[in-house]
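We were asked to recover a plausible sequence for a given structure. The inputs and outputs are reproduced exactly as logged, with field labels preserved.

PROBLEM: sequence recovery
POSITIONS: 726
GIVEN STRUCTURE:
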């Protein structure tokens, strides 16, 4: 994997390439009392403080510097490796010194000397000494194969506290094949041993791909046995020199698994453990900690609580072998060249860096994400995938809460009846199509979205609906017995226990009044409960099962009982209802409908025909809503009340209109009174708290000049969408 040429650097373990990682850990403090050079806080010295005060910009804390592209190995997939001579345009020692002078004028960072193989550069010791002289903190990222005893001694003598070494496989077979050199595995381990013998700390960098994904435990064990102080799994960024590895790139879900493994492994590992090029890790830390009931603070999680995922252009920067400055080695947009402009000028004035430093400029789901300050997504992956480095990270499986809410608001009030509806939604919301799909699927999985499909007007399809209520006497077991018998009828769509003398409330949908009466008679006979109210609506003032809080689609203030727009004798119409009454796919719903209808009707149906008919039905009120049917409890509306009112008949329409105009009434109907039940008007209200519900009821009471009976559902026996045609 990108071995020899090194990953051009990353905050936290830069340099590596990954081979050559940042041996300095992260930009926090390093200390070793035996060696005064080892105690420092990078990027926090006098020059850095003065720079930050002067410009309002953070000074770089880590600079990854590809001091050569030369390499002694020819690793698999590393297009740029494969030769040992200096590459054209590499900086001379004098040029390197000028760069270090300029860096030192604004900061005192960890300076990761990487490659290629940095030890191929004969003047590396001069570079290291000069870096120390200027107050910088040099470290080395290497493939480890050139570190014999004398090189290890030199590394120690030149004050290098830690070296990062790339090791991607736990066996000679895997590593040698990958490195393109027999014996490379053993040479790397020997290099590590030599470093340890001279008291130099070692960090093992492992790039995780599909090739070694199953070997992470073995890699961790190997690093531990070798005496490493730190283990940094790198998640491949398939850009630039990583492009050739795109086929072995993990999927977003596999990333989640590896990062969750890393989180758990860190809990017991004595090594400092830092997934790199994996900004989502900082989101996962917080998610896992929340599951454990722990808050992520410097006291509980140390530096992990203080840093963030992607630091490219923020406190981390990469300089290429020819002097190009980029946010990181994978971010293929150079911001200037140190041969032409001072590094400090590039760092201060690059508009791309300015974008990266302002998290408010992130777009797509990263822009809406509650974790954007601690994660930020990999900007290099966004750039490679979309051409927009501020776009959403394409390899993150997480769907931010706000994205779900945005999508839910849209799909409740109207899923687009257009070809590729998710693409339409994505364009509307500034998200990607895949994020919209993922948001809907995740809400389905958690139960917030119960069904995607049509909500039909039963009367327009020629069906009759009614609300029924039974007075069931007896204990809980008796009530459950009766409720089960009621729910068993497919015509019953909803069935609840409510706190009233009539305690079992259910809705029925039947082809006509006669069959409803027969059904009620059957239920009475089956249950033995003969006190059953039949409350078909006599007027409809509102029906809106949309909890977006934005749109108040109010149904016409008249009962829509005319069966217009739907032809029960047209097999096309019947088949379309049969499809739309179910839970439809969102990937290609109208194509799916067309395919199913073609199959069942034995003639070709196109998605355009399906779309056209649904649009007509929406216009005619046959389809009340095409979109998400939600579980309102999952959306925080845990307090629901059916208010029943005794209203003077002459005022029904006036009060119905007033109730319909409120944002919190979802359904409002007039229904007949019964001798034993004096109420003739019903409104459903939904609150997130009992107080909110009480306030809503009080507001309605003021409008009506009356006090309702509030029936609260205490148990849900059944909640199903109507099935008009089996
Ligand atoms: S959506 Fe973006 S910011 Fe949020 S966790 Fe994923 S990558 Fe990070
Ligand atoms: S852009 Fe990606 S590879 Fe570069 S520093 Fe950020 S997370 Fe790492």
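RECOVERED SEQUENCE:
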């Amino acid at each position: 994997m990108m071995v020899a040429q090194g990953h051009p650097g990353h905050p936290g373990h830069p340099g590596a390439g990954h081979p050559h990682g940042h041996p300095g850990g992260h930009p926090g403090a390093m200390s070793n009392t035996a060696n005064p050079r080892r105690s420092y806080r990078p990027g926090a010295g006098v020059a850095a403080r003065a720079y930050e005060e002067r410009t309002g910009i953070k000074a770089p804390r880590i600079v990854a510097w590809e001091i050569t592209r030369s390499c002694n190995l020819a690793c698999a997939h590393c297009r740029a490796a494969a030769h040992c001579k200096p590459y054209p345009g590499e900086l001379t020692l004098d040029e390197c010194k000028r760069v270090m002078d300029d860096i030192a004028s604004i900061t005192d960072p960890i300076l990761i000397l990487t490659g290629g193989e940095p030890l191929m550069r004969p003047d590396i010791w001069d570079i290291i000494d000069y870096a120390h002289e200027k107050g910088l903190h040099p470290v080395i990222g290497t493939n480890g194969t050139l570190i014999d005893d004398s090189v290890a001694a030199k590394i120690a003598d030149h004050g290098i506290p830690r070296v990062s070494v790339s090791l991607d496989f736990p066996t000679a077979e895997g590593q040698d094949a990958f490195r393109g050199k027999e014996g490379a595995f053993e040479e790397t381990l020997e290099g590590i041993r030599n470093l340890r013998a001279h008291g130099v700390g070692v960090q093992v960098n492992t790039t995780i791909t599909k090739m070694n994904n199953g070997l992470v435990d073995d890699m961790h064990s190997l690093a531990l046995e070798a005496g490493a102080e730190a283990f940094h799994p790198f998640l491949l960024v398939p850009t630039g020199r990583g492009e050739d590895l795109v086929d072995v790139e993990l999927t977003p879900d596999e990333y989640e698994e590896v990062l969750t493994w890393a989180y758990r492994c860190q809990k017991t590992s004595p090594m400092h453990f830092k997934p790199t090029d994996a900004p989502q890790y900082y989101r996962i830390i917080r998610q896992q900690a929340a599951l454990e009931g722990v808050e992520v603070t410097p006291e509980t999680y140390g530096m992990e609580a203080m840093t963030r995922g992607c630091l490219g252009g923020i406190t981390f920067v990469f300089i290429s072998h020819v002097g190009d400055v980029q946010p990181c080695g994978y971010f293929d947009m150079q911001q200037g060249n140190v041969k032409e402009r001072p590094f400090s000028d590039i760092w201060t004035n690059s508009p791309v860096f300015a974008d990266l430093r302002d998290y408010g400029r992130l777009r797509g789901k990263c822009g809406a994400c509650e974790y954007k300050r601690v994660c930020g997504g990999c900007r290099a992956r966004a750039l490679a995938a979309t051409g927009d480095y501020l776009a959403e990270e394409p390899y993150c499986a997480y769907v931010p809460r706000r994205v779900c809410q945005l999508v839910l608001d849209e799909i409740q009030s109207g899923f687009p009846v257009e070809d590729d509806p998710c693409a339409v939604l994505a364009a509307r919301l500034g998200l990607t199509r895949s994020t919209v799909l993922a948001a809907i699927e995740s809400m389905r999985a958690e139960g917030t979205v119960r069904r995607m499909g049509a909500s039909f007007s039963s009367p327009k399809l020629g069906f009759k609906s009614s609300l029924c209520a039974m007075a069931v006497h007896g204990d809980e077991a008796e009530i459950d017995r009766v409720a089960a018998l009621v729910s068993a009828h497919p015509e019953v769509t909803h069935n609840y226990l409510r706190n009233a003398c009539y305690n079992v409330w259910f809705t029925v949908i039947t082809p006509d009044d006669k069959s409803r009466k027969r059904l009620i008679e059957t239920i009475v006979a089956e249950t033995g409960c003969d006190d059953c109210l039949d409350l078909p609506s006599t007027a409809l003032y509102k029906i809106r099962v949309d909890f977006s809080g934005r749109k108040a689609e109010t149904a016409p203030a008249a009962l829509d009982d005319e069966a217009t727009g739907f032809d029960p004798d047209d097999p096309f119409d019947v088949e379309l209802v049969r499809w739309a009454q179910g839970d439809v796919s969102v990937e290609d719903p109208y194509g799916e409908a067309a395919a199913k209808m073609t199959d069942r009707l034995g003639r070709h149906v196109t998605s355009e025909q399906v779309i056209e008919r649904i649009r007509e039905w929406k216009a005619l009120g046959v389809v009340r809503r095409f979109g998400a049917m939600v579980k309102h409890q999952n959306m925080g509306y845990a307090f629901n009340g059916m208010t029943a009112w005794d209203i003077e008949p002459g005022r029904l329409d006036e009060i119905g209109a007033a109730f319909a105009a409120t944002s919190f009434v979802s359904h409002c109907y007039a229904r007949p009174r019964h001798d034993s039940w004096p109420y003739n008007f019903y409104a459903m209200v939904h609150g997130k708290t009992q107080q909110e519900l009480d306030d809503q009821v009080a507001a309605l009471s003021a409008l009506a000049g009356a006090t309702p009976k509030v029936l609260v559902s205490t148990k849900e026996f059944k909640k199903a969408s109507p099935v008009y045609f089996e």
